[in-house]
Design brief:
Helices cover about 25% and strands about 20% of the residues. It has four helices and five strands, in the order αββαβαββα. The protein has helices at about 5-10, 55-65, 85-95, 115-120, and strands at about 25-30, 35-40, 70-75, 100-105, 110-115. The longest helix is centred in the middle third of the chain and has 11 residues, at about 55-65. It binds tetrahydrodeoxyuridine. The site of tetrahydrodeoxyuridine has 14 residues, from α2.
């Protein structure tokens, strides 16, 4: 998918975000290695820790549809700051896509790109468990 279209898909998910507690909507669009795109949004809960971020929502969506190899993710927020992924999401990305390209958008639609390696250096992954 074209870069602008992937950004638009992430931004459109801001409307689906369920965030009555934080009032901080986040949308995500995840591009799989075969070009398929899955979207996600944050889904909060009255029992706060039960909430899920937009990124993990998109990844779960893709995995449930049979995809485990990812190329790019766009994360859209509405605030001035670029919406960077939380630590837990970084680790979940690492499981499936150590070379993932991460594009973070702010409310003005500006973007900042990172590699997962930049955001989660010296990371722990599935291969660490295969020697046991
Ligand atoms: N959130 C995300 O969905 N993704 C991020 O990258 C940062 C934070 C959500 C979690 C929670 O619903 C709200 O934003 C405030 O933390």
């Amino acid at each position: 998918m074209k870069h602008e279209a992937l950004k638009a898909a992430a931004r459109s998910m801001l409307e689906r975000a369920y965030c009555p507690y934080s009032h901080f909507p986040v949308g995500a669009a995840l591009e799989c290695e075969d070009g398929t795109v899955y979207t996600g949004c944050n889904v909060e809960n009255a029992a706060y820790p039960a909430g899920i971020c937009a990124e993990r929502s998109a990844i779960s969506h893709a995995v449930a549809e049979g995809h485990t190899r990812f190329r790019r993710i766009v994360i859209a927020g509405k605030s001035e700051d670029f919406c960077v992924p939380c630590g837990m999401c970084r680790q979940v990305m690492r499981e499936f896509a150590p070379d993932l390209e991460i594009i973070c958008l702010n409310g003005a639609g500006e973007e900042k790109a990172f590699t997962l390696e930049q955001l989660l250096p010296h990371s722990f992954g599935p291969e660490f468990l295969s020697n046991n």
